[in-house]
Amino acid sequence: MFPETAGVIVGCFFLTNISLYPDDGQLSLLHLNGTCTAKDSTTRYNKKVMHSDSIHQIIEDTEEYRDHLSTVDQQGNRIWLYPKKPSGRFYNARTIVTLVFLAFFLSMPFIKVDGEQFLLFNVLERKFVLLGMLFTPQDFHLFVLAMLTFIVFIILFTVVFGRLFCGWVCPQTVFMEMIFRKIEYWIEGDANAMRRLDNSPWTAEKIRKKALKHSIFFGIAVVFANYFLAYIISMDAVLHIMRDPLSQHLGGFIAMLIFSGVFYYTFARMREQICTTICPYGRLQSVLLVKDSIVVAYDHLRGEPRGKLKKGSPGESDHATPNPIESIRNSVNGSAATLRIGADGQPKGDCIDCKLCVAVCPTGIDIRNGTQLECTNCTACMDACDQIMDKIERPRGLVRYDSMTGIESGKRKIFTPRVWAYSGILFALLALDVVLIANRGIVESIILRSPGQLYQQTDDTHLTNLYSYVIINKSGKEMPFSLRMATPGARLNWIGHTHLAIPKAGKADGAFFVEMPQDQLTGRKTQLIIEVVSGEKVIDRVKTNFMGPNSPLPKMEHPETEHEHENEHSDHH
Questions:
Q1: Cβ 15 vs Cβ 31: under 8 Å
Q2: Collapsing DSSP states into helix, strand and coil, what is residue 325?
């Protein structure tokens, strides 16, 4: 009797903690008002439903899809996907977003502010322009801070909205799904037509379609490659290279062909592999998502158990008598209590197992398995499922934007303590960015006393120090400048030319002497303030030190005195 008694105890423990449990492919109610009977528990024990090994096996079976990629078979070979052409309100909204994205992407290289391209990331010359503001290597601290801000923003955005960025505005998704894939549908047809074409022998029609498609693909790749180059070396430089003879830029032309080839191969062959195996943001998703993250999710409470429709009109199966077990379950979960009656006569959820959500998925996953690393939140499955729900006269939203917490409790919670913490850090970093950029001058001035040089005595009361300077122009136009002493008693003496100007995004360097009377010195080191002036405006102030002696200056012999001593010595002889 001991094993049976133990089964009752174990059964009662699980019954008070689990609401629903699969039993022979059907849903069984295991928890009702927190009570259970020895008879019910013994029966389930005899069926081995509550056995720990059975539980472990069920968890392994339901998570098996996480052990492999949907685009790779067991031998490691690539499974080529043929996603069905999507349609629906979300796909239309993504099309509008794509048009806005392309308008921005194609126009930005032609927009200038104060002679500088609006956005420029010239890593070759270490020159970066953001929103018309020029950043040089001397602004590296701003770059590091901006990167930290961006990383925190990515973390916060992913915690709240998952991979929403991937599905809507990521360049990989925009170019692949909204440009290259549309061209493919236009030339080769929908998924079944493409599959038949690829499996058919090479005919004149197949050669024509393939040649046309890949020619257009490579042409678009060349255009986009040149646009990406414009964001690196500027559009003016790209247009200048295009107008010059090919022989003058042969190396650059070969590099551009290689880059275009990589771009073409990415969208012609790699495709979803970029999102599922290469993109680092996709890897971060698994560690950043939480139960409250709003993602493309399948409502398993409403959809399960899934099953086919009965033959006849959709309404006949949808308006069946409510199942009492499902009524209890839905009363707990706060959802509708009406169930469908499937083709086998058993109560079913709203999912009719049409697998259309799988057919339209560009990464080949089944969203009904739950949130997966490969999901880019492209919403194709949402549109497909909504269309099916309309046909069977069920409410939309079986697959929708929601969180696991929202599905299980019916209450979507965005502002969790984690979100508030990330938001506080993000706003603090943004405030620091704004303050530093607002106080960032248009020049960077470096003035240093020449190392290894001591002071020089010019007369009985004055000393000089030698200084070198580097003035960096962060603006987009040439800037005349001069240096002016702000320390009382100090005088600046130039070495070389005095007409000074800094080219745009360039620098000027040189040297000068500073002369100081001894009675103005405050010790061995005296602070100097030097102003950088452009026109009548002080654009920067630099502090440096003037080196002097620890003791009073020795008297210097003047040339007249030395001459008199020589004459006296001659007369004596």
A1: yes
A2: helix
pLDDT in tens, 210-226: 999 999 999 999 999 99
Query: What pLDDT score was predicted for residue 344?
Result: 63
Residue 52 has pLDDT above 60, yes or no: no
Inter-residue contact 167 to 377 (CB < 8 Å): yes
Query: How many Cβ atoms are within 10 Å of 358's Cβ, its own excluded?
Result: 18
CA 216-221-224 angle, 5° bins:
125
Query: What does R_g of the chain's alpha carbons equal in angstroms?
Result: 38
Report residue 489: phi and psi, to 5°.
90, -15
List residues bridging with 482 in a β-sheet.
533
Strand pairing report for 20-23 and 26-29: antiparallel
Spatial CA neighbour of 475 closest among 111, 129, 141 = 129
Q: At what angle are helices 204-233 and 235-243 packed, to 10 degrees?
A: 120
Transcribe 30-81 into DSSP letters.
--BTTB--HHHHHHHHHHTSS-HHHHHHHHHHHTGGGGS-TTB-TTS-B---
At 271-321, the pLDDT tens digits run 999 988 888 887 877 788 888 889 999 999 898 888 887 655 444 444 444
Per residue in 151-189, pLDDT (tens digit) is 899 888 888 888 888 889 999 999 999 999 999 999 999
Could you tell me if 15 and 36 are in contact, meaning their C-beta atoms sit under 8 angstroms apart?
yes
pLDDT for 547 equals 87
Res 9 pLDDT > 80: no
User: Tokens in use for 14?
Assistant: 């699980």
3-state helix, strand, coil in the chain (%, to 5): 50, 20, 35
Side chain identity, residue 108 = M
